[in-house]
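Continuing the series of single-chain predictions for the mutant panel. This is the parent chain; the variants come on the following pages.
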Amino acid sequence: MKLGLFTALYNSEPLEKVMPYLKKLGVQSLEIGTGSFPGSGHCNPKELLKSEDAIKSYKEMIVSNGLEISALSCHGNPVHPNKEVADKAHSNFEETVKLAQKLGVKTIVTFSGCPGSDPSAKRPSWVTCPWPDDFLETLEYQWNEVLIPYWKKAAAYAKEHGIRVALEMHPGFCVYNAETLLRLRKAVGDTIGANFDPSHLFWQGVDPVFAIRSLGSAIYHFHAKDTKIDPINTATNGVLDVQPYADEIKRSWLFRTVGYGNDFSVWKDIMSNLRLVGYDGVISIEHEDSLMTPNEGLEKAIEFLRKVMMFEEKGEVTWA
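Parent structure:
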């Protein structure tokens, strides 16, 4: 495995300025945002696709710093009920696929998206329970009339370009756990796989090891991010939490730097089971810990992951 970083953490800084620092810390691979929710501060596919020379120069900039690109990320909602929002996300998806092919990157990361409750809806509607029956009718519409038809076409487009799509299993979207990921994959084919981010599973009550074993070879990418469950607020209000992320003391759970939500044994089991199912890709740090600065959170994450992932082989330090 290789150590990586989702560079959205440093979107406010030019990538060429950040890379020497990342290399010095031991980062080997970059996951780079291309638009939608992560933004395109480090990579604008629309502009790069205008020139083969620009694409070549961009790739050389990465390689000259001793780094590589693990994935391009365009986390958006291409099935949003607002056509303008959906079309923008879809265009960004197609541009990202094209750019990934030209850069020699095999994986893009995004969300499944979430439609509205019916054709007249204006906003997405995430269903979390089966009753009253309206909710099951909403799911029937979302999956069979919107989500599966969209991803059949989108997956075929990605496959034509030699790209696989790693969907981040994220609450608020139709694919949010192993079951829903496998359901969509069964419907549209194995171009679709998972971006496995344990942080979104921890607070749902999912054991990441069980989810890893369920998904197996369907895991195409991995985010290293942790979640701390607040025992007081969770025992009082449960885990379905709409308190602002910045109001940490009132929240039932917080995104944390790896090791600050769950201990070594949990993360060692995660890494071991990734190996058991054959995952040998990048462990891409995604820092969203509001209690730490970007540099502090990243450096602590790297220090923790070194202890979790590294082993000695013939006197040389090697990534596990």
